[in-house]
């Protein structure tokens, strides 16, 4: 009966569950502290990596916005260069003369000359 009382005694130094693994309270505290420190370093590492990825994404979003603005400017410039007034101005500068009459070639009977 004394043996049963000793095994259930919560004040006994080897009463805790980690004593089943032959760990003393002091060793368990050391391992628990090491685990807490490693968990803390892991948390800081993952948080830092996530923040760095966030900054990289923000930079890429700025680049996208800048490229979209540049694309819009280039679209306006290309539309201006394709306009009829730009074509007339360019043709006048090149010395091209407008044609008075147009002649179209008649469609062939389906035969094509091949060399």
Tell me about this structure.
- With 115 residues, the protein is mostly helical.
- It has a domain at 41-91.
- It is 65% helix and 0% strand.
- The chain has helices at residues 2-7, 25-82, 84-94.
- It is rod-shaped, with a radius of gyration of 42 Å.
- It starts with a helix and ends in a 21-residue tail after the last helix.
- 0% of the residues are buried.
Protein traits:
115 residues; single chain; 3 helices
Number of contiguous helices: 3
The helix content, as a percent range, equals: 55-70%
The share of residues in extended strands comes to under 5%
Major β-sheet, in short?
Answer: none
Derived from helix and strand composition plus strand pairing, the structural class reads: mainly alpha
Distance between the termini: 116 Å
Average pLDDT works out at 82
- What gyration radius follows from the Cα positions, in whole Å? 42 Å
**Total beta-strand segments:** 0
Shape: rod-shaped
Low-confidence stretches: 1-6
Order of helices and strands: HHH
Helices and strands in order, then pairings?
Layout: H1 2-7, H2 25-82, H3 84-94
Brief account:
The chain has 115 residues and is mainly α. The protein is built from three helices and no strands.
